[in-house]
Amino acid sequence: MTDSMLIYKIILCVIVFAVSLGAAAYMTWGERKLAAWLQDRVGPNRAGPLGLLQPIADGIKMIFKEEMIPTHSNRWLFILGPSFFMLCACMTGVVIPWGAGWQSGETLYPMQVTDINIGLLYLLSVVSIGVYGVMIGGWASNNKFALLGALRASSQMISYEVAMGMALIALVMMTGTLSLKEIVAQQDAGFANVVYQPLGFIIFLICAFAETNRAPFDLPECESELVGGYHTEYSSMKLGFYLFAEYINMFISSAIMASLYFGGYNFPFQHELGLDGNVLTAVQTAVFFGKILMFIFLFMWIRWTLPRFRYDQLMNLGWKVLLPLAIANIIITGFVMLFTGKLG
Amino acid sequence: MLTEYAFWLLSFIAIFSGIATIISKNPVYSVLYLILTFFSIAGHYFLMNAQFLAAVHIIVYAGAIMVLFLYVIMMLNLNQLEIEKRSNILKMLAVASAGLLLVILSGAAHSADALTANPNKVTPAGMVEDLGIALYRHYLLPFELASILFLAAMVGAVYLSKKNLNETQA
């Protein structure tokens, strides 16, 4: 790796980090505006035009609030919980290809921080350790409501990870690679993967809702039963981290769904436009962000439309519906590949 | 050079957290230290260019099994493990068997060939393609037998956890 490439990667890393944080901040604004629209209200409109400065005001408020650490809590783990949750939320952005790449002279600068050949497994492993932030925080609070929230979060995440991994296996069988860059590049030539894997996409979508703790799967922080769930005892910026990381997770899972199943940065007839390489990359990145916005809208739309599941319904859906469907999807994919002669 | 520093750092973390797992009085701390041990071992896999193994190690051990461990310990609310009174004979026997294990381990370490790290020779054994070929071509039968064994264990566990056996049999 040359020096210029290393510097470029570091800059790209910072940009990805900043964009996920900025997107998450403005998603809080978007969510409140959307909720207001769905409920025939106005929503935040005091800070700045259209309430656009609201996320900044919220951030300042979070930082300057009094910080409370309960006396009987476990101090170190209490701090570790939200920090770990935030860290895991920020770690996934590095494997997502945000665009084809910038051509500068001889070298091509890819719009992806790192293309590890186990990209999908990396995503799954970061998702699977993210639950520790919730569990440690909920236990360290020394509060029954927080503990119950943490237990619910862990069992929910474990259950839905299984179906999520199974849904991805069918996709991996079809594409023959674990690298996100190649999966996106393959969708340039043919249709997007959702055409071939509709069932897998639906399963992945439902599991993404459950993994990000979004309604209708927000049982770990179910207000009507558990006060505030795992973050009952948290205040100030630690609470901010928990809430903020949820939005980052939502942003990243939208990006993952867009790149795995909806063609990533590719769009139809992109090579017929006759655009120059770098201009095409800029358009592609814009299209990619459009797809991400579409999924974020879906996340919010569903949150303000559907009521919350009951806990046994949640477990039944995960183990008795989604998991068998995912396995059936693998078998069907295998047979189709066998009969169409697409086996490698 | 960087790899060597990473190796020493990871080894230190692994050994430190391994010891801390055993000597922690609080079971939740033990589990958390064990998770740290798994992470550092996954880091070692990365250093040995076994990326697939590292990712699967984190997904399976740190991501699934240890979450269940932590879940059970939190649910049982074992805040302070009660130290049982053990007789002196038991303690002496434990020391003796640990000493025997030490003899075996040091003997094995002594007779093993000195492994020298060669950064120029990158073995692709840990990459997904090579692992897949090894598992599904060369070792297909043992692999499938192992999975049948797991399936049998799973069915057995489900059967044992059924509370009212007589009703379900009818």
In words, what does this structure look like?
- Chain A has one domain (about 70-340).
- Chain A contains 12 helices and 2 strands; from the N terminus they run H-H-H-E-E-H-H-H-H-H-H-H-H-H.
- Chain A has helices at about 5-40, 55-65, 75-90, 120-140, 145-175, 180-190, 195, 200-210, 225, 235-260, 275-305, 310-340, and strands spanning about 100-105, 105-110.
- In chain A, strands 1-2 form a two-stranded antiparallel sheet.
- The radius of gyration of chain A is 21 Å and the shape is globular.
- The two termini of chain A are about 30 Å apart.
- Chain B is mostly helical and about 170 residues long.
- Among the domains of chain B are: about 1-80, Four Helix Bundle (Hemerythrin (Met), subunit A) (Up-down Bundle), CATH 1.20.120; about 125-165.
- Chain B is built from 7 helices and no strands.
- Chain B has helices at about 1-25, 25-45, 50-75, 90-110, 130-140, 140-160, 165-170.
- The mean pLDDT of chain B is about 80.
- Classes of the chains: A mainly alpha (about 350), B mainly alpha (about 170).
- The interface of A and B includes residues 77, 128 and 136 of A.
Structural class of chain A: mainly alpha
Order of helices and strands of chain A: HHHEEHHHHHHHHH
Q: How many helix segments of chain A?
A: 12
Task: Give the distance, in angstroms, between the N- and C-terminal Cα atoms of chain A.
Answer: 32 Å
The radius of gyration over CA of chain B amounts to 21 Å
Number of domains of chain A: 1
Helix content of chain B: over 70%
Large-scale geometry of chain B: extended
Overall mean pLDDT score of chain B? 81
- Uncertain segments of chain A: none
CATH architecture type of the domain at 1-81 in chain B: Up-down Bundle
Helix content estimate of chain A: 55-70%
CATH topology description of the domain at 1-81 in chain B? Four Helix Bundle (Hemerythrin (Met), subunit A)
Q: In DSSP terms, counting alpha (H) and pi (I) runs of 4 or more, how many helices of chain B?
A: 7
Number of strands of chain B: 0
Distance between the termini of chain B: 67 Å
Radius of gyration of chain A from CA coordinates? 21 Å
Portion in strands of chain A: under 5%
